[in-house]
Amino acid sequence: MLIDTHCHLDAPEFDTDRAVLIQQSLQAGVDRIVIPAVARFNFETVRNVAHAWPGGAYALGIHPLYVHRSEDADLIVLRQAIMQAMDDPRFVAIGEIGLDFFVADIAVGAARARQEHFLKAQLKMAAEFGLPVLLHVRRSQDSVLKYLRQTTGLRGGIAHAFNGSEQQARAFIEQGCALGIGGAMTFERALRIRRHAAQIDLAHLVLETDAPDIPPAWLGRDQAGAVTAGLQRNTPAELAGIAQALAALRQVPVETIRVATTAAACRVLPRLAGAVTQSVSQERVISDQHGALC
Question: If DSSP states are collapsed to H, E and C, what string results for 263-286?
Fold first, then answer.
């Protein structure tokens, strides 16, 4: 099977055809989708979407791009939501949390300090509850690593959409994190991402779409291969093509990618292994198609 470890399936871009997209994803072999929250307003939404089909799982957290719309009281609400979710097997991580220094307005001064304040608080919650983290690390790898090292008791997690250096990749792996590989890897000009995807041990790579964002290269081309005016909406069904692209890049069978990335996802998100209660018939179908469930 394939696991999309990072997909914003609750996004309004999917409101008109979410059920259809889930069916397309299942047909493409994507049997698990992890849906991270971004702020207090969608804590309940991601939980509900995750429970709407057998392969859904979710994470709770406050995204660095949303901390400026959030109040400190939202951290209290988050902690309460985590406590309530601990008995829910579909709840698998704290996320999406992290730092974003790509957006200039929030990369310095008080805005940056607020991002760091929210990250530190949420890392402490992750350690307190023994949960992994889904990390946003856009142009902020070293700073996120600093806070990971300063927080005792963390259980690792995933560096989402990783685009750092070799040294930073090793550092995240040393902190117990896998590296998220998605649509950006399919662009030939994404040299650093493609080098990581080709060379880093598969035991430390997981697949993701970040749908509806970060579409793979083929969604920006027409049938003749010409670049279109704009990239199309990304969906979790595209994970199958991303797996194929990673297999081609590494020159291994796609089944090798499926097995290794599933194992890596289940290792860094241990609650994911028990996240879904399948019906007997559905479990038999998925097992027959893709091998043992994680």
Answer: HHHHHHCHHHHHCCCCCHHHHHHH
- Per-residue pLDDT of 175-233, as tens digits, reads 999 999 999 999 999 999 999 999 999 999 999 999 999 999 999 865 555 556 566 89
């059920």: which residue's tokens?
19
On whether the pTM is more than 0.85, the answer is yes
Q: Which two tokens stand for residue 207?
A: 């697949």
What is the spatial distance between Cα 208 and Cα 181, in angstroms, rounded to a whole number? Answer: 6
Residue 199 CB contacts under 8 Å (≥ 6 apart), including other chains: none
H or E segment at 141? helix 141-150
What residue has token string 């859904």? 56
**Rounded CA gap, 204 and 105, in Å?**
33
Cis previous bond, 12, omega within 30:
no
Instruction: Identify the bridge partners of residue 266 per DSSP, sorted by sequence position.
Output: none
Of 208, 138, 139, 142, the C-alpha closest to 178 is 208
Tokens 């590989």 appear where?
181
Angle at which helices 254-268 and 239-250 pack, to 10 degrees? Answer: 110
- State whether residue 222 is helix, strand or coil: coil
